[in-house]
Write the structure tokens for this entry.
Amino acid sequence: MKKNQFNFKHYNLNHISLSENGIQIPTTAYTPDYAKDLYARNYLSLFTDLAQHKTNVSYDDYKENICLYVFDLTQDKSASEPFGKVTRSGDISIHLKFDAELPETQPR
């Protein structure tokens, strides 16, 4: 099996939330603790917020190199397509906190 060429590291993130027009999503921020393997809520949201029920991403793979965060911004929070794509405008803010200083940064 070919290995995934992408590596999405968690960088010891310990808090993540998104605000849409001042409303926090999810209502309770994600607060993973990767050192203690406490990230199930983030892992499950990868599938529920994308309306995916089958996956080939294991719990360990998620932590090691497929650490993606998903936020369901659909109108009914069902991550499905019963609604047409409605153009909206507003403000989006992402709130991040880390346990340690980032070991590397990307150039702008």
Notes: The first helix runs from residue 40 to 48. The radius of gyration is 15 Å. The mean pLDDT is 86. The beta strands are 13-20, 23-30, 92-98.
